[in-house]
Amino acid sequence: MDENFAALTLADFQSVFESAPDPYLVLNPQFVIVGVSRAYTSATMTQRADIVGRSIFEVFPDTPSADAEHTLMASLQRVARTLKPDAMPLQEYDIPNPQAEGGGFAQRYWRPLNTPVTGPDGGLRFIIHRVEDVTELVRMKRDGITPRQLDTALREQAERMETEGVTRSLEVAANSAQLRQANDDLARLNAEANVKLRQLEASFRATFEQAAVGIAHVAPDGHWLRVNQKLCDIVGYPREALLRLTYQDLTWPEDLQPDHPLASEVLAGTRQTFTVEKRFIHKAGHLLWISATVSLVRDDAGQPAYFIAVVQDIQQRKEAELALEEEREVFRNLTDIASDYFWELDAQFRFKAVSPTIVRSGLDLTGYIGKTRWELPSFGISDETWQAHRATLEAHQPFRNLELGLLNIDGEARWFLISGDPVFSRNGEFRGYRGTTRDITERKQNMERLRQQAMVFNCTEEGVVITDPCGALIEANPAFERITEYSLAEMRGHNMRFIQSDLQDAAFYQKMWKSIRETGNWQGEIWNRRQSGDTYLVWLSISAVHDDSGKVSNYVGIFIDINRMKHPKSELERLAHHDPLTNLPNRVQLLDRLEHALRSTKRRGGKGAVLFIDLDRFKPVNDTLGHQAGDELLTAVAARLTARLRDVDTLARIGGDEFVIVLEDVPGADGVTAVADEVIRQLETPFVLAGGHEARIGGSVGIALFPEDGETPAGLLERADQALYAAKAAGRGMHRRFNRPPGS
User: Fold this and answer.
1) CB atoms near residue 42 (< 10 Å)
2) What is the CATH number of domain 338-439?
3) How confident is the model at residue 165 (pLDDT cuts 50, 70, 90)?
4) What is the CATH number of domain 3-204?
5) Which of 72, 338, 703, 737 gets the highest tally of CB atoms within 10 A of its CB?
6) pLDDT value at 740 more than 90
7) pTM of the prediction?
8) CATH number, domain 450-566, options 3.30.499.10, 3.40.50.980, 3.30.450.20, 3.40.50.150
9) Strand ordering across the sheet containing 552-561
10) Are residues 134 and 109 in contact, defined by beta-carbon separation less than 8 angstroms?
11) Could you tell me where the beta strands, DSSP code E, fall in 119-201?
């Protein structure tokens, strides 16, 4: 060991440490700061007392991100593990700047080096954290300084570092003669600085050439001044060929115009940089989407020197975006022409989007946004169904075919079928619902018309029969069975000749079918024969039904038993006001009695109710046991319900398996509910039919009170019918009261 070096005291080492031009920190193996150089406190505007004794991660100057802190930790751990120096990547820090107006921070770039100090036993004693300030070098590189200028600047910086080192060495010499060796150290630092200059220049060239993006220097007139290999690869031109072109030569003409105002703003100094997405013309001739970020470098006089352009190939991304936009356009087109409407709810179940085409149903689009579905003027759905639907939504489960009635802007009732699925984010967070809505108003109206037609078909006194083109029986109504004494089940598929009486000759039938073929219909008197063998005279009307191609698809025959038309007047009047099967009042007498009940209630100030009853599971009885069993069951239902009513009440059969009860002078809604419960109990009690067959049915009841739910017979029946729909939607064996839509 050199004798002069051995003669250095602790104070001498402290003086050398304090005089070092670069910032230094001394860390113990636990990365706690035990020493701080004067250059470090000066550079970071900190006090030694605030730093010593604290972890370096607590005082790390303005750590910009968790990545920077992670980088420092990784470097220190490598030094502690390998006992070898470790150079960290270039770091950017914001250092307090008291010279800035109003305080603030100065942006600095440091290149830290962590060096181990070992003890006699070879173990780690300290880690020297040295920081080299390369802010000026980075700024010069950013400003586009040429390699020659960069070399000169770095040399000037090295000279400044040398001057600073000499000055500091003189200070050291004044304190101790043994520090003469500092001049040699400064010379060594100067040599290291020169090496670093060359390394920085090489690093700059490598960064420019090996960058993962295209980089170019572009003259203000658009000529390429300098380009890297990546840019050449992107546009397909060799470097020499590309340098003979301009920025404008590569740009698709339609995309030139957006560049001009942005470049003008940068040249004028009102904008620092801009980014555009545009199309370049590849050397192979095809168009290529790129993203260009452009900034301006000015010379020492402040005049524009050249642009720096960073170019990225975004062809794949753009193709994906265009494909996605095309898919969205297809979706929009399908949405416009689809019969279903699309909607979206947020996490609070409020409408956030609805298909514009929903206006076809007369619904106001703006009235939906921001509202929940249960805030809409809906009808035709029970409270229980609402609650079940809301429970499904709150459980974030899919739902299907929720039937809902809504009033459009004209107050017209529309029916919709709604289905939806929950939407979740990628991390599983519930985002809302998306789904479809189908306008089923026409279908509902058709179903109602079919129901009414079926009621007429089943309740009319005229026999109705439908055959195929060959005359084989397909369908017939109950009146046909009563008149002919044949059951539909046993005669379906047989030719209608089985009811002929043979009292008409072949010429009669030839003339009849000739008229049907030529005119499409025939009517007249004809003798038929019942199953018992009795003949009877009917007035028969036959019509041909044609399909879309004009061919006969069916024949429909309607006939009246003329013998029954000859009954006394009193019998005809009875048939006009009573159901011929159960002898209960029919619709005509029901309306008359309901009108009387309304007048009486209004006069006395009392209350009444209409109960609309529909039998459950009646059709299976009719289909399996035959129409005779069905008629017997309807008669038994009429008798059982009549026995449970007061004399003042009215029970009527208005068709098929539908009955109506009119209650007068009821004390309140609770009394009506009690009657509805009793009706359901009576219907659920098994019926024993002829032959020992047991029929298990049930019933659903719709309730309308008067005068509050209506003041006309037709209106009350309609509202009770709507309540019946709600009861059947809630399940069999239920009753519901008419629920008036809000605001109606």
Assistant:
1) 10
2) 3.30.450.20
3) very low
4) 3.30.450.20
5) 703
6) no
7) 0.35
8) 3.30.450.20
9) 473-476, 463-467, 552-561, 535-546, 521-529
10) yes
11) 124-133
Closest CA to 366 of 312, 318, 303, 409: 409
pLDDT digits (tens, 9 = 90+) for 75-113: 999 999 999 999 888 777 666 665 655 556 677 777 888
Residues 582-626 have pLDDT tens digits of 889 988 889 989 998 998 888 888 899 999 999 998 888 877 787
Q: How confident is the model at residue 169 (pLDDT cuts 50, 70, 90)?
A: very low
Reading phi first (left if > 0) and then psi (alpha if -120 to 50, else beta), residue 60 is in: beta
How far CA 157 is from CA of 136, 312, 342, in Å, comes to 9, 35, 68
Q: Which long-range contacts (CB under 8 A, 24 or more apart) does 315-322 make?
A: 315/288, 315/289, 315/290, 317/289, 318/277, 318/289, 319/289
| pLDDT, position 348 | 92
- Asked whether 214 and 230 are in contact (CB, 8 A), the reply is yes
Residue 33 is which amino acid? I
The structural domains of the chain, with segments of one domain joined by +, span: 3-204, 211-319, 338-439, 450-566, 570-737
CA 411 to chain centre: 29
CA 530 → CA 367, 486, 535, 542, distances in Å? 64, 8, 6, 19
> What is the mean pLDDT of the segment spanning 159-169?
51
Largest alpha-carbon pair distance within the chain? 153
Residues 508-529 as b or e (16 or more Cβ within 10 Å = b): eeeebeeeeeeeeebeeebebb
What is the residue type of 732? R
The listed range with the strongest mean pLDDT (28-37, 326-335, 352-361, 362-371) is 28-37
pLDDT tens-digit readout, 635-671: 999 999 999 998 889 999 988 889 999 998 888 888 8
Q: Phi first, then psi: give them for residue 536, nearest 5 degrees.
A: -150, 150
Alpha helices (H) along 578-626: 587-604, 618-625
Closest to 652 in 3D by CA, of 593, 720, 711, 706: 593
Q: In this structure, how many other beta carbons lie within 10 angstroms of the beta carbon of residue 630?
A: 23
CATH dotted code for 211-319: 3.30.450.20
Q: Are 653 and 634 in contact (CB under 8 A)?
A: yes
Q: Does CATH place domain 570-737 in 3.30.70.270?
A: yes
> Residues with Cβ < 8 Å from 715, sequence gap 6 or more?
none
Backbone angles phi, psi at 221, to 5 degrees: -85, 0
Measure CA of the first residue to CA of the last residue in the chain; give whole Å: 107
User: How many other CB atoms are found less than 10 A from the CB of residue 218?
Assistant: 21
**Chain centroid offset of residue 315 CA:** 29
Residues 242 and 227 sit within 8 Å (Cβ to Cβ): yes
3-state helix vs strand vs coil in the chain, percent to 5? 45, 30, 25
Question: What gap in Å lies between CA 65 and CA 696, rounded to an integer?
Answer: 76
Do the domains at 211-319 and 338-439 have one common CATH topology? Answer: yes
Instruction: Give the integer Cα–Cα distance in Å for 206 and 228.
Output: 10
With vertex at residue 574, the alpha carbon angle to CA 571 and CA 576, rounded to the nearest 5 degrees, is 110
Within 485-555, residue ranges assigned H as helices are 488-491, 506-519
Side chain identity at residue 340, one-letter code: D
Q: Taking residues 11-39, report their average pLDDT.
A: 81
Rounded to whole angstroms, the Cα distance separating 405 from 544 reads 38
What is the C-alpha to C-alpha distance for residues 126 and 24, in angstroms, rounded to an integer? 12
Residues in the chain, total: 744
Cα distances (angstroms) measured from residue 615 to each of 474, 579, 636: 25, 17, 13
